[in-house]
Amino acid sequence: MRRSTALLPLLALLLAGCSAAPDGARSAGPSDAGPSDARPSGGAWWRPRPGVEWQWQLSGRLDTSVDVPVYDIDGFDHDAATVAGLHDDGRRVVCYLSTGAWEDWRPDAKKFPAAVIGESNGWKGERWLDIRRTDVLEPLLAARLDMCRDKGFDAVEPDNMDGYRNTTGFPVEAADQLRYNRLVARLAHERGLSVGLKNDLDQIPALVGDFDFAVNEQCAQYGECAELTPFVEAGKAVFHVEYELPTSAFCADSRRLKLSSLLKKYELGAWREAC
Predict the structure, then answer these.
(1) What is the full per-residue pLDDT of the chain (275 aa) written as tens digits?
(2) Can you tell me the distance from the alpha carbon of 186 to that of 157, in angstroms, rounded to the nearest whole number?
(3) Fewest CB atoms less than 10 Å from the CB: which of 116, 119, 144, 254?
(4) How do beta strands 238-242 and 155-159 pair?
(5) What span, in angstroms and rounded, lies between the C-alpha atoms of 173 and 178?
(6) What's the predicted TM-score (pTM) here?
(7) What is the DSSP letter of 67?
């Protein structure tokens, strides 16, 4: 995740007592909903279109009352019944996973050997993975994606997909990142899951064909939103959030660029303000 590490102490307090109510949202369009179809195969996985509305909630009690066609929620924290309930409400459901960093609280954390666990990524309990070691990581990723598929998710949001631009503790290069990100996309597609490219803006031209949508944090704050244009031009959604700018500072550009933009708080609870 790209979010500022300067707010980590505040985040810990917020997570301890997070309770927020979402705003109202427009109704889901029929072409963006419809998750009741059979599990896709042969490349027929879900492909969200530019501008589709969404909700991203990774902490707190899940609020299922936000009337949008796409929910992005934590894959470990929610069961098949939760996903099925969202489907019954006409939602598509995205499975959040960290694929580029190790998290010490996950139930499979002990399966990751110490040799592939590197430096902190700035978040408590999280460390970068040595993505060059696909021999070790591929079966672990496959098991996680099996979980997403078996719970009925439509798509996966793989996080920490730009380690090569960070201090990971390993000599990871751009070519390693491309290879790893394509591996994640292939494993998702083999399971009938749509897959999004998280951040990793510099590699969008090379990866837009491998991914079905993009997820971005703070492109408006850093003046980078135009770099996501290849996804929109390919007819693929860009799910975008800001944390520190008011909606008045980015929504006009988001509408022009056809981004699916939200203002969220750092803890990614239920609260949202949509463009």
Answers:
(1) 544 333 333 333 333 333 333 333 323 333 344 443 334 444 689 999 999 999 999 999 999 999 999 999 999 999 999 999 999 999 999 999 999 999 999 999 999 999 999 999 999 999 999 999 999 999 999 999 999 999 999 999 999 999 999 999 999 999 999 999 999 999 999 999 999 999 999 999 999 999 999 999 999 999 999 999 999 999 999 999 999 999 999 999 999 999 999 999 999 999 999 99
(2) 13
(3) 119
(4) unpaired
(5) 9
(6) 0.87
(7) -
